[in-house]
Backbone:
């Protein structure tokens, strides 16, 4: 997971980092992939969650004007990479797999509403409201979909570095 190199520090990121350490210390041959935000069919969290929210609400509150973003990578590309790694033709190493483009939240909302032909009122709100909202959800919900640490990572605007995997794995 890209959480290993992210500013994110929570149990998820920590366990991913620890898993990598265990694998590297073992004697087994390995490939480690660190994908960023994965999207596609069956996505109920990241972009899938955003689509669900946009579909249900007539007014979209866009924290900080949606200037923060991510580098989403399509699930089919991850599957193609894994299939290619299984051929044994690639070096045993860590592969940073991030979307080709950094996409702001504002652009994601625009693309979703346009693709689904939805008219929505979009209002910019201070980022602090987003943090307060998810802090409250974290205190109330048993298994919140998102944690404050995840939100802080999301709004940080961090851009992941990585190789041009589409060239490495010959994926268009």
Residues:
């Amino acid at each position: 997971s890209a959480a290993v190199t992210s500013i994110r520090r929570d149990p998820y990121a920590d366990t991913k980092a620890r898993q990598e350490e265990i694998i590297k210390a073992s004697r087994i041959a390995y490939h480690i992939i660190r994908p960023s935000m994965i999207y596609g069919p069956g996505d109920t969290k990241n972009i899938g969650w955003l689509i669900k929210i946009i579909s249900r609400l007539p007014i979209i509150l866009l924290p900080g004007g949606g200037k923060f973003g991510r580098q989403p990578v399509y699930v089919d590309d991850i599957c193609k990479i894994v299939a290619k790694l299984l051929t044994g033709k690639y070096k045993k190493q860590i592969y940073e797999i991030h979307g080709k483009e950094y996409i702001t939240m504002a652009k994601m909302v625009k693309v979703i509403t346009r693709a689904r032909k939805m008219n929505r009122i979009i209002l910019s709100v201070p980022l602090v409201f987003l943090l307060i909202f998810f802090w409250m959800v974290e205190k109330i919900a048993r298994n919140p979909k998102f944690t404050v640490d995840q939100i802080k990572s999301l709004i940080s605007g961090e851009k992941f570095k990585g190789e041009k995997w589409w060239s490495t794995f010959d994926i268009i």
Summary: The CA atoms of residues 13 and 71 lie 18 Å apart. The helical segments are 11-25, 46-56, 75-85, 105-115, 127-140, 148-155, 165-168.
